[in-house]
Amino acid sequence: MRFGYVMKDSLVALAASCVLGVLLSGCFADKEASIESAKATLQCDRLNGATIEKPEVNELNISADHIALALFPKVDEICSKLDKRYALSVQYETKLDEATSTTKLTAKETKTAIVRVILGLTNPEQEYTFKGAAQLEASGKKVLDIGESVQIDNKDKKMLVEQAVQAAINEAKKVFKKDIELERSKD
């Protein structure tokens, strides 16, 4: 009989610890664990679709969905300037370089995050490539090993992606503005 009570008490204790664990995991969860998880849709009717290639180097762990969230609204800025239908292909790469220099009392840590975006617009007659990049350098100093480590957080990653995408879109605007001006000068 005593074994039955021990078994029942053990199950109650196990269930209580599981519930407590679930509740506490919400309290200590990383509030910036994920960038927005909304889906982006391409609105430009002059594009035959878009493909975002999986990067070979993705040290910042940025997903293709996050690239699309930043890119697709910006593509609409050049959509009206496209004279023909194009297919859009996107490549991206993210890198994180870390460096530390130490002396007897201090340590300086530097992290450099880089995001590169390459946009390709192609149709049977023409092919365009536009590149954009953004870089962020963060550094911190510890004295006698006291101080916080340097972090590149999700807000920083989002900002880098947006800046790299905007740089590529700005390059595209220059080219398609010239094409429109050339067409007008022929008339």
TrEMBL record:
Domain of life according to the entry: Bacteria
Organism for this UniProt entry: Helicobacter canis
Protein name (record): Lipoprotein
